[in-house]
C-alpha cells in the first residue's frame, strides 16, 4: 500500500521531526509544566526548578486533600 502525498508523516500519522529538536522541545515543555505546578502549589514563593521537591510537595498536598475529603 502506498501513501500518496503523505511523505512527511509516519504510519501513525505523527509528524517526523529531527531527533534532537523533539527531545529538546519535550524537555522544555516538561520544565514549563513543573514551574507552573510549583507556582500553583505555593503561589507566595518564587517557582523552584528542583523537580523532586516539586513532586514531593504535590504528593504531600494530595495526601492532605485526601485526608480532608474523608
Describe the protein in words:
By secondary structure, this protein is an all-alpha fold. It has one domain (19-69). The chain has two helices and no strands. It has helices spanning 19-41, 51-69. The longest helix is centred in the middle third of the chain and has 23 residues, at 19-41. The radius of gyration is 20 Å and the shape is elongated. The model has no long low-confidence stretch (mean pLDDT 81).
Short précis:
The protein has 2 helices and no strands. It has 70 residues and is mostly helical.
Shape estimate: elongated
Uncertain residue ranges: none
Distance between the termini: 57 Å
Radius of gyration: 20 Å
Total of DSSP H or I helical runs spanning 4+ residues: 2
Mean pLDDT: 81
Assign a percent range to the helix content: 55-70%
Order of helices and strands: HH
Amino acid at each position: 500500500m502506498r501513501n500518496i502525498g503523505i511523505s512527511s508523516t509516519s504510519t501513525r500519522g505523527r509528524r517526523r521531526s529531527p531527533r534532537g529538536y523533539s527531545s529538546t522541545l519535550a524537555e522544555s515543555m516538561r520544565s514549563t509544566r513543573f514551574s507552573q505546578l510549583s507556582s500553583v502549589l505555593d503561589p507566595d514563593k518564587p517557582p523552584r526548578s528542583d523537580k523532586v521537591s516539586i513532586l514531593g510537595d504535590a504528593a504531600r498536598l494530595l495526601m492532605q486533600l485526601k485526608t480532608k475529603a474523608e
